[in-house]
Design a protein that fits this description.
The chain is an alpha/beta fold. The protein has two domains: 82 residues, Methyltransferase, Methionine Synthase (B12-binding Domains), Chain A, domain 1 (Orthogonal Bundle); 120 residues, Cobalamin-binding domain (Rossmann fold, 3-Layer(aba) Sandwich), CATH 3.40.50.280. Helices cover 59% and strands 13% of the residues. The chain is built from nine helices and five strands; from the N terminus they run H-H-H-H-E-H-E-H-E-H-E-H-E-H. It has a five-stranded parallel beta sheet, sandwiched between helices. Helix 1 packs antiparallel against helix 2 and helix 5 crosses helix 9. 38% of the residues are buried.
Length: 211
């Protein structure tokens, strides 16, 4: 990896918001392809962040800062990448289910997926099953992420999966579930395709499901 891309990855890992845009521009000015800046600089950095978060060596505030740093760099890269039509990993649609107002974990998942090259559509909190089904119709995601942080709202995940089934859309999208009270056993019981215990593993799981 070139020196500047390594520096870019390091700046991202450290969450240096004030440096990342200049460095991104500098890499492009040196003639490095935007795809390479994304893959070998930014995504390489986010990979390290994901691993450290999984291993307990980085905590949520630091991960959020790294994700924000990634956003800053993407402000420069996104328009250029759009012109060169870099293949996205796919569309990731996510929502916190009806009755649940928690979104810190969900937003962290969204940032991790964006960091991994997915196009993220974040519907927000308290989303009814029918609204999620409509969004699946409109956005045609490859993966749908459903989040619940309360045992009382977990049944809404199953309701959403059934609504997808009734709409004839279930086979078109991989459904992943997560949130503090959710388990692999529960995911299997309600017919989800995957479960992730945290934001970092969610990306790995999604990639695995899409292979």
């Amino acid at each position: 990896m070139s020196e500047i891309l390594q520096e870019l990855a390091d700046v991202l890992i450290q969450g240096q918001l004030n440096k990342v845009q200049d460095l991104t521009q500098k890499a492009l000015d040196q003639g490095i392809a935007p795809e390479e800046v994304l893959q070998n600089g930014l995504l390489a950095g986010m990979d390290v962040v994901g691993k450290r978060f999984k291993d307990g060596d980085m905590f949520i505030p630091e991960v959020l800062r790294s994700a924000k740093t990634m956003h800053k760099a993407m402000e420069i890269l996104r328009p250029i990448l759009a012109q060169s039509e870099v293949k996205s990993q796919g569309v990731f649609l996510l929502a916190t289910v009806e009755g649940d107002l928690h979104d810190i974990g969900k937003n962290l998942v969204a940032m991790m997926f964006e960091g991994a090259g997915f196009e993220v559509v974040n519907l927000g909190i308290d989303q009814k099953a029918q609204a999620i089904v409509q969004a699946v119709k409109d956005k045609n995601p490859s993966v749908l992420g459903l989040s619940a942080l309360l045992t009382t709202t977990m049944p809404k995940m199953e309701e959403t999966i059934q609504a997808l089934q009734e709409a004839g859309l279930r086979d078109q999208v991989k459904v992943m579930v997560g949130g503090a009270p959710v388990t692999q056993e529960y995911a299997d019981k309600i017919g989800a395709d995957g479960y992730a215990p945290n934001a970092a593993s969610a990306v790995d799981k999604a990639k695995e499901l899409l292979q």
